[in-house]
C-alpha cells in the first residue's frame, strides 16, 4: 500500500481544504511533516487512521458516543462559529494479485445539532466498487488494512513509550502480535467451531432413539419367534396330513381288495361325489358372478325404484318444459305473420280473441310441473339408461337366477352329504367293518388337520402383516438415527478440526516467534548504540518474555534496559513486527525521538526512517529532527511540509518545505502539490 | 357436481368382518362392501356415523364401487333426499356409515354362498320365483 494524497477539510486546526501530496519514490521514501506543538501533527496522524477505520481507529474500547464526541471536537473552529461539516480524504494505491488498484476513501461528517452524521465513500479506480455494497465498505477497509496490523505502522512517541515500559502485558501489543501471526483468525475459527459443536450435540438425541430402536428390535425378535413356531406347527401338520392321506389310500385299496360288491358301490359313490364337487364348484362360481354383478341393487329394490321414478319424472318435466317453450315460440312466430288471419274472412277484433284462445288452450295442454331437478342434472343420458337397465336386471333377473343357482346347489350339497354318509356306513361283512371304521377315523383326522392348517395359514398371514409393519417402523427409526448420527458425525469432525487447529496454532506461533526473534535482533542491533556489546534478542515462548543477550551470553530482561534503550527497543520491535507481517504498508511515525539521546536519534534518522518501509511519514517538531538531522535525511525526503499554527486566525497554515529550509523549490512544490 | 371424495376409510369392526366373510365366501372386500352398502340402504332407520371408528381398511371409492358407481351414488342421494339430508354435505359421512353398518349386518346373515339369496327381500323373491316357476 502506498499513500498518494491526503485532503483534510475543516478538521482540527485545518481550515478549509488542505491537500498533501504524499507521493514518494524508492530512493526518497520519506514525507516529513514539521510542526511545533499544537500545530496539528497529531491531528494529521490520527486523521489518516480515522479516515481508514473510523471508530475502530481509536481502539476497540471506544464507544460510538466517545468517537462522535471526538469528531465534534475536531470540527474546525472558525472565528465566529464551528464548521458544520468536515472531511478527510485519502488516496492510495494497493496491489492485489499483481494488479495495482487506486482507491479514494472519503470519510465526512455533518453536524446535525444533536448528532454527528458520518458518511463513508469508497472509490476504486474512480468507480464505486461493484462487488461491494455500501454496508460492506467498512469491513472491506478493515480487510485491506487490518486495524490490528495498522497499529504497527502507525505509531507515536507515546505509544513507543507505553510499549517500551510494558511489552509483556500490553493488550494492544498482544492483539497486534496475534493478528500478525495470523492467529486471530485461527482463534475465531476455534470459537465458532466450539459453538457449532455444542449446538450439534444439543440437536442430537441418539440415546433416546437407540432405546426405541432396541425396543422395536426386541418386539421383532418375539414376532419372529412366534412366526417360527407357527411355521413349525404348519410343517408338523402338513407332514401328518400327508401321512394320513397315504394311510387313507392304502385303507381304500385294502377295502377294495377285500370288499367285492361293497367296494364297487363305494367306487360308484366316490365317482358321483367327484362329479358333484365339480358341479357344486360351478354353481358356486355362478352365484359369485351374480353376487358380484347387479345383485347388490336387488337388496334395496324400493330405493332403486325411487331413483328410477325420480329420474324419469325429472326427465319428463324437463322435456315438457322444453316442449312448452318451443311451442310458445312457434306460436309467437306464427301469429306474428300478419297475413295468417287477415287473409281469411275473420274480422280484425275477432282474430285477436282467436289467437288468445289458441295460446291458452295450447298452454293448458302442457302443464308446467316443478322444474326443480334434484338428481337428473348429475347424470348423463347414457348413465341414466344404464341405471334403468341395471335396476331392471337387478329387480327381475337377479332374484330368479340366484334363486335357481342356490336351489340347485343346495340340492347337490344335500346329495353329497348323503353320499358321505353312505361312504361312512360300515358294510355287513365282518372283515371290512374294522377297516371302514379305521378309514372313517382317518378321514375325520384328515378333516381336522385341514382345518387346523387353514387356521395356521391365517395366523401366519396375520403375523406377516405385523412383521412387515414392524420392519417399516424399524427402518424409519434407523433412518432417523442415521440422520442424527450424521449430525454427531459432523460434530466429531468439528472436534477433530479443533484439535488440528490447536496444533497448527502452536506450530505457527513457534515459527513466527523464531522469525520475530531473528528480525528483531537484526533491527535492534541496527538502532542500538550498544550493538558492539549486544549479540541478539531472545523471545521466550509462552509468556512472551523478551531478553537481550550480550556477546558474553548473558541475558538481560528487556525491562532492565534504560528508558531510552527501551524506546529504541520498542521501535525496533514494531519495525520487526511490521516486517514479518508481510504487509507492505507505509510507516507513519509521530514524534519519535522525544526521549532519545543524540546517538540514538542519529541511528533512528539514518537507519530507521529511510529503511523502515517503502513509504515513511514522519511527524516531527523542530527539536527532534533538527537542522542537522534534516540534512542527514534530506536525500531520502520526497516532500516536506511545514505546519504553522496561526494564532491570529486560529488555524494552521500549511506550506511546503521544513521549518527553516528556505527551500527555493517551496513555491514550485506547492503548485505541483495542488495541480496534482 | 357432488362434493367429491376418493378415499374411503371404514371402521376396524367392519374390516375384521370383511376378512372373515372373504374366508367364508371367497368374495373380495370391494364386492362385499357394495352388498353391505345396498343392504344398509334398504333398512328403514338411518345409520349413525358417530357409531363407527375410522381405524380400518382404506378403499379407493372407484375401485370400491366399480362401474356402477353412478347408481350407487344415485341411490344414496335419493335416500338422503328422502330423509331430508343434504345430498352433497352429508354424502361422505352417510356413505361411510352405511358401508360400516351394511358390512356388519351382512356378516351376521352370511355363512356361505347359499345365504346371499336369502338377503333379497321377500317381495322380490316371490314374484321372481313365481316367474321362474312359470317359465319352467
Automatic annotation (TrEMBL), chain A:
Tell me the first and last residues of the signal peptide.
none
What GO molecular function terms would the record report?
Answer: ATP hydrolysis activity
Coiled coil ranges: 206-337, 402-514
What domain of life does the UniProt record list for this protein's source? Archaea
Q: Which InterPro entries match?
A: DNA_S_DndD, P-loop_NTPase, Rad50/SbcC_AAA
What are the entry keywords?
Answer: Coiled coil
Its family remark reads:
Belongs to the Sph1/Sph2 family.
- Protein name from the UniProt record: DNA sulfur modification protein DndD
Recorded source organism is Halorarum salinum
Tell me the gene name.
dndD
Automatic annotation (TrEMBL), chain B:
* Gene3D superfamilies in alphabetical order: DNA sulphur modification protein DndE
**What single Pfam family name could you report for this chain, choosing any that match?**
DndE
Which NCBIfam families does its entry note?
Answer: DNA_S_dndE (TIGR03184)
Question: What is the protein's given name?
Answer: DNA sulfur modification protein DndE
